[in-house]
Amino acid sequence: MKHIKQRTGWDCGIASAACIAGCSYSVAARFAPASVHISGIDPLQMLSMLRALTGYHWSIIDGRGIPLRELELHGYCMVWIDGGRAWIGDRAVMHVIVYDRGTIYDPGHVIKRNLAQYHKRHWSIAYFFVASRRAARKAAD
Questions:
Q1: For the chain, which domains are there?
Q2: Residue-wise pLDDT tens digits, 37-50
Q3: Is 93 in contact with 9 (CB distance < 8 Å)?
């Protein structure tokens, strides 16, 4: 999986979608709503974007309350994490990252990191997105 860095303070979703889809940031940005550069992307918009980019069915799983450090999946997924401290108006600011077999691809950082070394591992999971088994097998090939 190739690490893709975000370009603005709000486009972690675009960069994470590009990382999972195996495409460039520019291609992923074409499938993002115009508002993403102003206010970020919401989970339903991300779901639509992932389906368009990968051609696979994705599911949203409510992971509220699960500490990121306890995430142990055997495949890959996109994770929406919540620091619980940052707010814009009445909306909590969250961050989108990619998790792949113990490695974190944080679009806000230059390099990928092991989950144990990730400085936001104490954050809570809000949602995670998982692909169908067919997509997971394709990514492993």
A1: 12-140 (3.90.70.10)
A2: 777 788 888 888 98
A3: no
